[in-house]
Amino acid sequence: MGDSARESKLAGQFFDAAIGLLRQVRDEDAGEIAAAGTAIAEAVAAGGRLFAFGAGHSSLAAQDVVYRAGGLALMNLLAVPGVVGVDVMPATLGSALERVDGLAGAVLDSSPAKAGDVLIIISLSGRNALPVEMAMNARALGLTVIGVTSVAYATETKSRHVSGTFLKDHCDIVLDSKIAVGDAELTHEGIEAPFAPASTVVTSALMQAMTAAAAEELVRLGIEPPLLRSGNVDGGHEWNGRVMNEYRDRIFFRH
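and the corresponding structure tokens:
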């Protein structure tokens, strides 16, 4: 065989690490995932709305559950200007904005979120001002807050919020991604920095798991889960049109 057929030892190690983390959150977060699914389902049943927020790379998992095939049509992205992705220039500005006091409150006050809604806040470290204030303000408004974070950061790092608290301290339900501080699964001789982060894989899996749990609970409540189909399968557009029309007052990404 030539070099092109040679397997990468490090690539295999990353898959092993990611699979191990997925198994760990499946087993250790099962109760919290079910609770998150129930909270989402109960909000849907009661006429509430669903929102997801994440900054920087944490925003990837939030975006992954908004307007997508197999996802809940009611899930809306709560976007904070400048922190959603790496399209802001310079990219370092996004990181700086995560530490600005008052930004989360201003965004929530101008958003459609209100009491009875559910807000999922994703922050790997949970230490910056933005996710902490987002959770604090959301709960004060009467929202149910689900946090997806790595609890390890709360014991191994210091909060950057004036209160000294972390995202996990202001949530109704906390899903722990189990990601080690630094978010890099591999090291190797001759490579100075650790590499191969798994937070996106694990966090996205947690988001899809709670969506599945929500769908299961909605069926138990006798409600057809408002799921979207792929527009690339026959009948998908018609299905989505019906769902989005039925729930149009709770879907904000179409306005």
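(Above: one complete record from the training split.) The mean pLDDT is 93.
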